[in-house]
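Justification of computing resources. Each target in the renewal requires a structure prediction run like the one illustrated here; the chain below, 552 residues long, is used simply to show the kind of job we budget for.
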Amino acid sequence: MPFSIPRDYRLYSKLVLRRGNCNEDISIENCINMRNLAEHRRETAKIDLESTHIRQNVCVASLVIFCMILLSVPICQFTTELLGRKFPQFFQVGELVSNPHREAFEKFEDTLEEESVLANWVLPNVQSIFTGVFNIGNEQAYVGKDGWLFYRADIDAVIGFKDNSTPNKYRDALNAIIDFKQQLEARNITLIVVPIPVKPTIYPEQFSGRYEKAKTPLHNPSYRELIETLASEEVMVYDPTSLLFDAKKQSTQYLKTDTHWKPEAMEWVAKDLALFINERIEFVNHPIPPYIKAQVEIENLGDIGKMLMLPENQTMVQPEEVTSHIIRDHSGKLWEPERDAEILFLGDSFSNIYSLVGMGWGESAGFVEHLSAELSRPIDKIVINDGGALATRQTLVKQPERLKSKRVLIYQFAAREFYSGDWKILPIPKAESIRTDKSESSVEPKKDITLTATIKGKTNPPIPGSVPYTECIIAFHLENIEVSNLPQEIVVFVWGMQKNKWTEATKYKVGQDIKLILKPWSSVETDVGSYNRIELDNEETWLLDIYWGEIQ
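Resulting structure tokens:
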């Protein structure tokens, strides 16, 4: 029976609830009536459920259809793998049961997702509907206005902190950069930090109508504080943001379907950076004869366009045409880095895009090449895709002799690295200590060597489509090596992902034996050293000899 309230009490008794800045007066009578209504609805739902009857043949048919849908996926996968003469992944479940650990389960799930026959057929077609009809991207690639595409990591870096740990990232970046500057300063080397703004910083209006009339670049809320802190610590910073933002009034500065800048924007920044350097750095050596520039036309689909994972015959996202300029020396030879140069350049894909053939935008026309041409000086470089925060510094730690005779180190990276990069502090050893720590038995082979060794440790590539790069190199830490002229433990780099597909190397596990043909890393570093590379975390492996491997 509903609770009865005296009339006088109903008229004057009120319950005051505070919600935010608003006060709402709700009578006790209304509260009790709402409670009674909720109880009535629950009783009605219970009666409906208890009185619902489904015929047996409907139950059986529904169960059969449901089971068929569930089983169709593994059956289709199993049949396709057998017809393709591949070892069915289904049987790998036994390995998980016998040796269960988190890393193995995650790897199994990633492989299952990557090699799923139905997913590889369904997802591109579904994505084409989302993109073509609803103008929707996917988890990593966002669709903007007028055919512009944006990388999620760039958007996250610009709009602010996406989790509680991210605010500490830029503090880690500050500490690492300041420490890096101090280490270089002790060697009489000047550090110049060059953060390249990401596309939504320069073109926020192409992503959101809110910034249609933006008069200033859109940075992360902490960016100004970060740059000012670096300046207060006497870290030299060249920030091309304003230059690019003003230049967009005359021409487009970034590729519509890619994360990177257009050739003309890159060349303009290279020219301005050269002026910045000449005003602040005194070099010992004289400038060399001018470099030669040769114009070339290139057409390619950007990395974000590829991340949409659309069908191969799609026409929604079109390739872009650009005009770049290849750099040659005065003898007509393509530009090459020089180890004994006074300038060392550390950079990422913003420097690689028109220099690394595998990125699809040409060769010998990148940021370092054009900076060298504007300065009329040779440059040594360590440039690695997706390596702005850590990989280039890590390589320098392994090769401290690269600092010999240097007067300036230019440290270029995408500005998003301030908030998402790995900024661990890396002490740079003396070149002599590295040579001493190397095994005395290590002798660089003059020809390829075939060996079988045991995997002591390894790294894994990213899931295809989750990053803007279609190629990735992974590392094996090998032991039990029985080749006479090789040490007992070495590090071998191999392809882990090519053309957005995992390679055979990803299937090997720690503890397994692997057969490889080895080449000295120095013989291939010029060709493959700039690709995205996942290094081993164990710092002890940094002192081991490095080779390039091909699986047999």
